[in-house]
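Appendix B, record 7
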Amino acid sequence: MKLHRWIVLAAAMASRLCAGNLEITIEPVFNGEPIRLDSLRYENAARETLSVTRLSSLLSGFALEREDGHWSEVPDVTAWVDIGTHRNTIQLGNFPKGKYRSIRFYIGPDAASNAADITKYPPSHPLNPNFNGLHWSWQGGYIFMAIEGHYRSGNAVPRGYAYHLARDPNRTRISLSMPLDLTYDAGLQLHFDLATLLHAPRSLSFEKNGSTTHSREGDPIATALVTNLPGAFRVNRIVSSAPILKTSPPITPIDLPEKFTPYRFAMSRTFPMPDLPRDNPLIEERIELGKELFHDKALSRNGSISCATCHQADAAFTDRRATSIGIDGATGDRNAMPLFNLAWKKEFFWDGRAASLRQQVLIPIQDHREMGESLDHLCEKLTASPKYAGLFKSAFRSPGITAEKIALSLEQFLLTLNARDSEFDRAMAGNDSLTEEESHGLELFMTEYEPRTGQYGADCFHCHGGALFTDHQFHNNGLTGNDAGREKVTGSVADRKKFSTPSLRNVALTAPYMHDGRFATLEEVVEHYNSGVHRSETLDPNLAKHPESGLKLSDADKSALVAFLKTLSEKTKPSP
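Structure tokens (predicted):
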């Protein structure tokens, strides 16, 4: 037995000694200077001033060329690089130690990965669409590279641009020569120059060539991007002995009871895999406690309201009010958000000020305009209640009632609230069918507004695409008003008037609409995007690229959109 262990250990050490590891860092630049997001300061060859609000890409097919001309490939590795989330590092391991002379990789996944079943990818996998936000589920495949922002020509009002490179024929190989010694681990810093991408060898002008592309066959903008891409990358620096292949400490479940019943999480077969909290694994006992707390008015200072007061099951867990009413008749500033499919969200509230559900649930309890209760007093009340002694004992190993246990239990209950069986879902599964009007609405919803290529859709899918009908991002959608939105959280002017994108599932049940409940009907919502978008510096580029005169949808088009939106609601309410 001891000899066997020594053999295994020796083999592992030999493998480490024979393998080199490489850390690649990609830095987006404009004419060699690091790109600052949301800054209207860069100038392309056409003398158009532009900003960058999104720069996101999928990379694959990594390989290093040895000095003898042979290639060492890294199979089945795809990387997601995104400037907005500061994802710019790629770790590659197990290259044979030695000297190399070039590197190659591709912009975009290979054809098999581009057409693969998205539901198989773990939550943090670069090809999980809920993670990268780059999947075109209605057409199949991924966006290989997304570049969005604003531009201004002369003294004109800034407009938006959105370049989305996609589709298998546009997968582009990048090859770079450099001397790389992997006798030890190394780091490689690459520059990606957006100025080169927009200029050489084929110059692009937003005004002359078009401000948007979705890479349809024969689109000259996509062709120009593919032509320019190889020259936009260059080696900036090589570092020896770079610290790479970092590992994270294991995650331990919090205070699980000795005996518990695992909960079977149910979701649609079309949904991407969610990132469920590994330190709070779903168990029946904790969910039952969370459900009881959710409906208990004891969570408010005067015992007048519960969580369920503002989040009613038959209204998709909203309250049908423009702004909610708390204890003593106090009113808030924002609309009650629906509570379903929360397992796929990363930030909570309209402005994203809570980074987890367990953090979110405690905020309204303490807010003086909502439930107005202190956590210490709440724990005292629940401790004095006979019904909670057994519930907390079944849900947690340690004795006593704490704010953390309340938060963990409410988090678990909320994670079980899923919306996944609408008329639209049944039609897509072949068990139902959409009417002609609803099908027309779906077509408009999923079609970009791009007159240059003869497309006159409603462009809804950019923010509400995919199986969840939301990108879970924050956008300025052209509303007027004084609410600064996410700027209050981040302190960044670039986030002014940006709000969380709600899912359109169950949208027919969640009126009134928008963060302040200003629109009473879906017809009003559609008309806003058709003709009422207010332009400002932070307006989302996918709206800012539309003409100031609006989309000019016909009355029939607008009715079809509303008809389609109504198919996204459950015929039975989401399970409470």
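Remarks on this record: The chain is about 25% helix and 20% strand. The longest strand covers residues 54-66.
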